[in-house]
Amino acid sequence: MLLALHNAEEAFGMGQALPLLLGQVPDVLRAILPDITFSSFLVALVVVTVAPVLILASMGHRQPSGWPAYALLAVQATILLNVLSHLMAAVKTGGYVPGLFTALLINFPFSMLLLGRAWRDRWYSGKAMVALVPLAFLLHGPLLLAILSLASQLIPRF
Fold first, then answer.
1. Transmembrane stretches, by residue range (predicted)?
2. Rounded CA separation 75/72 (Å)
3. Whole-angstrom Cα distance, residue 83 to residue 81?
4. pTM, two decimal places
5. Which of 5, 23, 40, 136 suits a disulfide with 78, CB 3.0-4.6 Å?
6. How many C-beta neighbours within 10 Å does residue 109 have?
7. What is the Cβ-side half-sphere exposure of residue 96, based on CA atoms within 13 angstroms?
8. For 79-111, what is each residue's pLDDT tens digit?
9. Alpha-carbon distance 52 to 91, whole Å?
10. Alpha carbons 68 and 65: distance in angstroms, whole number
């Protein structure tokens, strides 16, 4: 799965990069961020990697349709948004950030192909396709923060 490859790139490089990246977060956002450690980051990374696999598994051998397929499109829209976050982080830090290569070389083109095909072939209504944009922001924002927060609370208990 392409997401797993991207998340592996992030996992291998984030140990050293996390303090630098957290240092670049504006003070306004820092107040709402949970205490993100490398361990909590890895736990969150596993969750966001496994979740789409579980959705895909719920479909079995059926044709993609209904809520599971739409949920996977929402994940792909979120991955596309994540590409933008990698670009912004690279600009802000002035160089490579973990996940940048796979974001640009794999996630961006695949997202454009898949979402473009879904739009062109009308897999869902225009309203449903447009709704992927705010869904991506919800998944990449509040839901990701909730996962990171939960992970940071659970890690000391391991």
1. 36-57, 69-89, 95-116, 128-155
2. 5
3. 5
4. 0.88
5. 136
6. 11
7. 9
8. 999 999 999 999 988 999 999 999 999 999 999
9. 29
10. 7
